[in-house]
Design goal:
alpha+beta, 2 domains, nine-stranded mixed β-sheet, 14 helices, 9 strands
Length: about 375
Amino acid sequence: MSSNRARLSPFPYINHNKRRTGALVISLSMFAMMIYTLGYLLGCVMEPFENNMYGSFAKKTVFSASVDPGEYETTEEWNEKITPLIEEQRDRAREDLGTDDVFVVRVGNAKLKSIFGEAYTSVYYFDNGEDMQRFSDHMGAVLVSGRMPENPGEIVVDTMAYKNSGEDLLSMLGDGHTIVGQVECPYYVLFGYPLKIENNINLIALHDDKDAGIIRKLEDKGWDLVYSQDYDSSFEQFHEMTDTLENIKIMITAISGGLLGICVLVVLSIHIRDRHEEWCLFNSIGFSSFEIYIMALKELLICFAAALFIGGILSAAAVLGMDKFLIDPMGLYVPLIRPGDEQKVLLMLIAIFGLCQIPLFLQIRAINTVDQIE
């Protein structure tokens, strides 16, 4: 009997029932792929703009202080009066912060497209080419086509931003704007020279650390700031915007995972039930229910391991295909390697493996010998 027990292995059944075990492995693999792909698609909603909306503020801080230009009648007149006052504030900020990387900047907005909705990015206008080039270098922007701005209304845009919206980037900026070049940059960066009507004037400080503490340093120096945006405030603003969306993503993932999981459990239950008569035969020739249970458990572990491997390949192929043919052409960047979604897939497969112990245990309990069946 010991030799028989030595032969009690999951591999003979797997080798002789490739169709059944294959169906189980494919079901589990498709489940893993669908959950991972769903996470990728849901990530396409806001993740492309996450780095732009607050990640870029690890390298810059925008702020403005209270200033009174006096009476004026036109925007052009206001600009003429306000610019020298802002330049004085720039010089004071450079002294207070101990850096020359503080510049006068006018800020506009451009619209970007998401898979489900829209987002916005800033357009930075500089008064001279030296400041503009310093900003470009600091943000890691490299000119890849066209030329740098030379005249009022001319801007350069990041290649991904141009893929995303093309000339529609100019729709919110008004008439008189022209895209004269494209840059490659880690962010959706747009910058150039302002038209005379641009009146949203601020100061921008460049730095290399998200914890630079520019706002705190200015306030310690007695600045009366009326507007500021740094990494911390942008991070908080982004997550306030996405908290509701995150709850929706969790709900969609849970519902989808639950429905797919039920389907997989049905397949598993059928697989386990089909093994019952063979288990009864094993019991008749002297194998205990525990030995049969261990063998069945090994079969399932082999199927789950194979499904995890194949599901990983299918998931990689699915997201690579979507990135190449859908996401990248839209000018969106979504990480292909997603530890959070990988963890979800793994936890869901563990949960399914745990739940399938119920029908397995019931079938083991129902084992009869051949004599008992007769």
